[in-house]
Write a structure and sequence with these properties.
Blueprint (H helix, E strand, L loop, with lengths): L2 H14 L3 E2 L24 H4 L9 E9 L1 E2 L2 E2 L13 E10 L4 H15 L7 E6 L11 H8 L7 E4 L1 H4 E3 L4 E12 L3 H7 L3 H4 L7 E14 L5 E14 H8 L12 H11 L6 H6 L7 H25 L8 H20 L11 H8 L4 H5 L1 H35 L4 E2 L1 H11 L3 H10 L3 E2 L1 H19 L1 E3 L3 E2 L32 E2 L6 E4 L1 E9 L2 E8 L1 E2 L13 E4 L4 E10 L2 E6 L10 E5 L1 H25 L5 E6 L4 E6 L6 H16 L5 E7 H6 L13 E7 L2 E4 L14 E10 L2 E8 H21 L6 H36 L2 E3 L2 E9 L2 H14 L4 E9 L2 E8 L1 H5 L5 H9 L4 E5 L3 E6 L5 H11 L3
Parallel strand pairs: 1-2, 6-7, 12-13, 16-20, 33-34
Antiparallel strand pairs: 2-5, 3-4, 5-11, 6-9, 8-9, 9-10, 10-11, 14-18, 15-18, 17-24, 18-19, 19-23, 21-22, 21-24, 22-23, 25-26, 26-31, 27-28, 28-29, 30-31, 32-33, 34-35, 35-37, 36-37
The chain binds adenosine-5'-triphosphate and magnesium ion.
The site of magnesium ion has 2 residues, from loops.
Length: 915
């Protein structure tokens, strides 16, 4: 079976078991401050598991793009060196939210692997949680019993808490898990090792590896560490797709499957080098496991893997950059460039050449790749080029450092220097070491580590956020105002008690003020600043999301008024930020949004939709939103487009948007529309955005988008739209900044005021442009006159000085000092040279604007026959006026700071010329 067929068979199997097949969430996470990238299939269901989103449909399955390069799961350093960990990989998963539990999950997994895919049961081992006496959790006998229906006892292995007990975090849902491991050793390997597969499970053997993990969430861990039963049991499974394909294709390395081989073949073709597969290595038919062949293999694996990670993340809207998630991607790309540079001899950009192969292989399953191929290649090439320049620079710095070491008779590069190379030039330690080694030097690694540690601490202190536990104020959802419709399940499933057992209701699309209670709050400390986060039962406050900033406003009742300074969004809920807690947190409040700011944000958000529409009309369908920022006073919109937007195009876009504003198109909003239906409405879905099962569609006439943001009730509210800048943010990405409404009004007043001020300079002339053009003409003519006049003066002066030249030892000497502009002084000595052909020394000192200047001109015979050098004379003499300069042997000049030293400097030239 091909990889694509295997992916389909998984979906088909779980579909036949009544699972809803859902799309992969984006790999890049945009709305969770605790996680930058999806690292497991369950990430996108976190809010369901935490009880803040309805669980229907309760059975789901998908393939999820995962990235494990930071935080809790970081496999980056393994990747390429082993053959079964990737940075980006697909995790096949099936879920049950309060539907089937252990028995169903185990039976289905077994049926799929053995009955459908025909894996040999003798090669399969399963683990179950051995229990934890100190936590009073017994062994997971239940799971073991269900496994025993399928496998012999000696294929069931007890596992410890580290491997077989899954926890979402310090608190929250957790439970035992069962992993399925496969023994894929060759008969020779089995014979040589003499160990059974059972003995190698979880022992890091590259041929006895975990392929599927089935998590049974059944407990909730409380803040005090104790466990209580979870109200809704959850099945969460994750199977590594690349590992599964490898088993089914009878390979011994993920890279030998049809997922990676086409990419590796492309690498071979470009580099002219050969990759050796597991079989080739094993049969010794290849040029062997020499060290250099091993390095080539590692480098090819690294590049094939990282190509996927970087391409998928760009397709999901995360470009390489110098901060946060963007920096993680940049580091992955640089790791690949480094391996290609060092071991594959690629001194020029290389990875981007592999993009067509990747798109050819994976573009059908992941259309976002196909649609954005051009952007991916462009961004990748630009990043590669930039990093290669950095590498060159680092190498030349390192060369210099090694030269200095050699001169000082040392053989060790100090770690501080190596760290500076790393930190400032992105020059990695292993490359520094490699180059040093090649030149007979070592690097002080311990020192490097100390510097690295110091930097990490600096970063940690700067970013440290301390969250205290949530304090539950009100245990159940507000009062009985009957707003529960649409959340019909909120009552049927009691939610985890440590979360307050409630789901917040957002009423902000219809209200800006609403009665509410505080459900829970917690204290947050960041950089010594303290504030509180509040979750309300009902809230009209919009939490920052989709580029639109969060609302601010107040929480008030008769007793007090608390300012809400910002609203964030976490796990599908608005979290309100306040500086102080109410005296009585249990009281009833009115939550009131600052409507001036809200209306301005809403108008700007609506304007971005119109802008998006107009850009597509004017520039073409390739325009895809790549980011946006909407606040009360401005809007910013990033989009894919490969050249500068011309002034004429900008004007056309502005006219189109303003026309739509004048049409005063009413907001046409559809809430809770099933995703597929929304697409039929013609709504534009963005690659890299996470959409729930039900979505909201926002339409203003021809502009129709998936959007959860707050909008103007009609386009007329925007008032007026004006683009204030157009620029490039990255390869293939343009940025437009614009203003609307009141901000535009201010913009126009400012422009008018400065125009009026300019007009006043010209006696309020009616034809301002004509008057200014005339002034410029006059100015140019006058400048020309002055230049002619000056040239004449210089000419006269030259004649005068030549006539006055003194004869000293047979040499004509001109030494003169006067106030003069620098370029006139230079012209003067050149004029003199034209008049006196041989045997002269001319020194002219001039002062302009309080700054001294020295010009020295020599005849050619003074240079040739008398060994004089104007450059040397000037350098020496300029010291006397605190200056420096230089030039050629026959002419040189110098500027200085001290005009009082000028005459001494002139004398010095005369003296040095031995006259
Ligand atoms: P391992 O111990 O092999 O690193 P894990 O315990 O980290 O695996 P889980 O977190 O349970 O794995 O993830 C579920 C499944 O995802 C694994 O059984 C495996 O098949 C797959 N998987 C995990 N990490 C990777 C990776 N870096 N590359 C490819 N597949 C992976
Ligand atoms: Mg792991």
């Amino acid at each position: 079976m091909t990889a694509n067929e295997i992916r389909d068979s998984f979906k088909k199997f779980f579909e036949s078991k009544q699972h809803a097949i859902v799309p992969s969430a984006p790999m890049v996470i945009k709305d969770d401050p605790t996680l930058m990238f999806t690292n497991a299939g369950m990430n996108q269901w976190k809010d369901i598991i935490l009880g803040t989103r309805e669980p229907e449909p309760r059975r789901r399955a998908d393939t999820q793009k995962c990235l494990r390069v930071s935080g809790k799961h970081n496999d980056l350093e393994e990747v390429g060196h082993d053959t079964y960990h990737h940075t980006m990989f697909e995790m096949l998963g099936n879920w049950s939210f309060g539907d089937y539990f252990k028995e169903g999950a185990i039976d289905m997994a077994w049926e799929y692997l053995v009955d459908v895919l025909k894996l040999n049961p003798e090669d399969l081992y399963v683990t179950v949680f051995e229990g934890s006496p100190e936590e009073n959790i017994p062994r997971d006998d239940e799971a073991a019993r269900y496994w025993a229906k399928h496998v012999p006892e000696d294929h069931i292995i007890n596992g410890n808490k580290h491997d077989n007990f899954w926890e979402m975090g310090d608190t929250g849902p957790c439970g035992p898990c069962s992993e399925i491991h496969v023994d894929s050793r060759t008969p020779e390997q089995r014979k040589a090792s003499g160990l059974s597969g059972r003995e190698l499970v979880n022992k890091d053997d590259p041929q006895v590896i975990e392929i599927w993990n089935i998590v049974f969430m059944q407990f909730n861990r409380k803040a005090d560490g104790s466990l209580e039963p979870l109200s809704m049991n959850v099945i969460d499974t994750g199977m590594g797709f690349e590992r599964l394909v490898r088993m089914l294709q009878g390979k011994h390395s993920n890279y030998d499957t049809d997922i990676f081989q086409p990419i590796i073949k492309a690498e071979e073709q470009i580099t002219g080098l050969k990759y050796t597969t597991f079989e080739e290595e094993a049969s010794h038919a290849s040029p062997a496991s020499s060290a250099s062949q091993a390095s080539i293999n590692v480098a090819m694996r690294v590049c094939a893997d990282h190509l996927r990670a970087v391409s998928f993340s760009i397709a999901d809207g995360q470009l390489p950059s110098n901060a946060k998630a963007g920096y993680v991607i940049r580091r992955i790309l640089r790791r690949a460039v480094r391996y290609a540079y060092t071991f594959l001899g690629q001194k020029e950009s290389f990875l981007y050449k592999l993009v067509p192969t990747l798109v050819h292989e994976m573009g059908d399953a992941f259309p976002e790749l196909k649609a954005q191929q051009q952007l991916i290649s462009k961004v990748m090439k630009e990043e590669e080029d930039a990093f290669l320049r950095t590498l060159e620079k680092g190498i030349s710095l390192l060369d210099k450092a090694m030269e200095e070491l050699k001169a000082a008779g040392k053989t060790e590069l100090d770690g501080v220097q190596a760290f500076r190379l790393f930190d400032t030039y992105g020059f990695p330690l292993d490359l520094t070491e490699l180059i040093c080694r090649e030149n007979g030097f070592t690097v002080n690694e311990a020192q490097f580590d100390v510097e690295m540690q110091k930097q990490k601490e600096r970063a940690r202190n700067a970013a440290a956020v301390e969250n205290s536990d949530w304090v539950i104020v009100s245990p159940k959802l507000g009062d009985d105002r009957g707003l529960n419709e649409g959340n019909s399940d909120a009552g049927s499933d009691p939610l985890p008690p440590n979360l307050g057992g409630s789901e917040q209701i957002f009423v902000g699309y219809d209200y800006t003020e609403y009665e509410c209670h505080i459900l829970r709050y917690r204290k947050v400390t960041q950089k010594k600043n303290e504030f509180y986060e509040l979750v309300l039962d009902y809230t009209p406050f919009y939490g920052e999301m989709g580029g639109q900033v969060g609302d601010c406003g107040v929480l008030c009742n008769e007793a007090e008024t608390i300012e809400i300074i910002d609203t964030k969004r976490e796990n599908n809920q608005s979290v309100h930020i306040v500086k102080q807690l109410p005296k009585d947190p249990a009281a009833q409040f009115m939550a009131c949004v600052d409507t001036d700011k809200r209306d301005a944000s809403a108008a700007n958000h609506t304007a971005t939709h119109l802008l998006d529409y107009a850009l597509k009309q004017v520039l073409g369908d390739h325009v895809e939103q790549k980011g946006s920022y909407v606040s009360p006073d401005t809007l910013r919109f990033d989009f894919s487009h490969f050249e500068k937007v011309s002034d004429a195009q900008i004007r056309e876009v502005e006219r189109m948007v303003n026309e739509m504003i004048r049409q005063d198109i009413q907001l046409d909003e559809h809430r809770d529309v099933p995703f597929e239906e929304a697409k039929k409405l013609g709504a534009i879905a963005l690659f890299g955005e996470k959409y729930g099962d039900k979505v909201r569609v926002v339409r203003f006439g021809p502009s129709c988008e998936f959007c959860g943001g707050i909008h103007a009730k009609a386009t007329g509210k925007i008032g007026f739209f004006k683009i204030i800048s157009e620029s490039s943010v990255a390869a293939g990405i343009r940025r437009i900044e614009a203003k609307t409404g009141k901000e535009c009004e201010e913009l126009i007043y400012n422009t008018e005021d400065s125009l009026r001020a300019v007009r006043a300079f010209f006696n309020n002339a009616k034809d301002l442009q004509g008057v200014i053009a005339k002034y410029i003409e006059e100015h140019d003519a006058m400048k020309k006159d002055i230049e002619q006049y000056q040239a004449q003066r210089v000419q006269n002066l030259a004649v005068e000085l030549v006539a006055k030249a003194r004869l000293v030892n047979g040499v004509k000497l001109i030494a003169d000092q006067r106030a003069m502009m620098p370029n006139a002084a230079k012209d003067l000595v050149f004029k003199i040279r034209e008049m006196m052909t041989e045997s002269f020394v001319c020194v002219v000192g001039s002062v302009f604007d309080g700054k001294p200047m020295l010009n020295v001109m020599l005849s050619d015979d003074m240079v040739k026959d008398h060994g004089l050098n104007a450059g040397q004379l000037v350098r020496e003499a300029a010291k006397l006026m605190q200056g420096g300069g230089g030039g050629q042997p026959h002419y040189a000049s110098a500027g200085g700071k001290n005009p009082d030293g000028l005459s001494a400097a002139i004398d010095k030239v005369v003296e040095l010329a031995s006259l």
